[in-house]
Specification:
The structure is a single chain. The chain has 2 helices and 18 strands. A hairpin with a 2-residue loop joins strand 14 and strand 15 (239-245). The protein is elongated and about 85 Å long. It is mainly beta.
């Protein structure tokens, strides 16, 4: 009888040991899994940039991971979740240090850093087709949606075609409410990267949309003798806002643009693609009107 009891105790001890071993293995595996998640490394984002005709840089930041968001700064500070969240390419127009990192939950990547030195580009007057980038004008537009009668914009352009006879092609033509005039970019090539910028000087306002008359809409002949825009990137205070896809005809086109603007805000339109004009070697791209409402 005593022998039987001893055998039962041995069997029970063996079973307990097996269960205990299995529990230890399970806990150890769980710790390994949790440790792997907590220590997962994120690759730093990749910063790339192209230089525009006016000397500014078009910056793109690419996430090298399957997870996480990119945060960045342009003041030299290390980016955290309270920094700017990257949502699309943007323009850097002043000398600065860009820092970016990917963040996923509580995991932070190494910081990617790039220095940008911006030098203003001006023409030397030897090219008769271009003028200085300081092509500016002021005009008054009414924004009916808020009842303002003096929504003032200072308009500038990266370039403009030199005047021909009594015709000029400077940026102010975009807001003169006159379809007989147009802004025509003056850079070499088809105008990729050229821009017009609207600096707002009125009181705070709610803008609901933009209307654009594409090409040189003075006449059917002038329209087809010049190139027109097919894609515009819109930036508000150098931050990417949206891309506008324009039809290639010279009538008014309307786009949603829900933004509150304050004095000093700058709305910039950058040419990204065009429909070329005739093969006459001039490669001029035009827009007739841009109106905010």
């Amino acid at each position: 009888m005593k022998k039987e009891i001893k055998i039962k105790k041995q069997k029970r001890s063996k079973n307990n040991f097996i269960h205990l071993t299995g529990l230890i293995v399970s806990v150890f595996s769980l710790l390994l899994i949790l440790s792997g998640c907590a220590s997962k490394e994120l690759s730093e984002p990749e910063i790339s940039a192209i230089t525009n005709a006016d000397g500014t840089s078009q910056v793109t930041i690419t996430n090298q991971n399957d997870v996480g968001d990119i945060y960045y700064t342009i003041d030299g500070a290390d980016p955290l979740t309270n920094s700017k969240l990257y949502s699309g390419s943007f323009i850097i127009s002043e000398t600065t240090t860009l820092k970016a990192r990917t963040i996923y939950k509580n995991v932070l990547s190494v910081i990617a850093t790039q220095q940008f030195t911006i030098t203003a580009v001006t023409t030397n007057g030897t090219d008769s087709s271009t003028t200085s980038s300081a092509t500016t004008a002021s005009s008054t537009q009414t924004i009916p949606s808020i009842g303002q009668t003096s929504a003032v914009f200072n308009v500038s352009a990266s370039s403009a075609l030199s005047p021909m006879g009594d015709n000029n092609y400077y940026a102010g033509n975009l807001i003169d409410n006159n379809w007989s005039t147009a802004w025509v970019e003056g850079a070499a090539g088809n105008g990729y990267g050229e821009y017009v910028a609207f600096s707002y000087t009125g009181s705070q306002a709610q803008i609901q949309g933009i209307s654009i008359v594409n090409g040189y809409a003075k006449s059917e002949q002038s329209f087809y003798e010049n190139g027109c825009v097919t894609k515009l990137d819109v930036y508000v205070n150098e931050t990417y806002n949206q891309t506008l896809y324009l039809s290639t005809y010279g009538t008014t086109q309307y786009f949603d643009f829900y933004n509150v603007v304050s004095p000093g805000d700058v709305i910039k339109f950058v040419i990204r693609s065009v429909q070329e004009g005739p093969s006459d070697g001039e490669f001029d791209t035009a827009m007739t009107e841009i109106v905010f409402y």
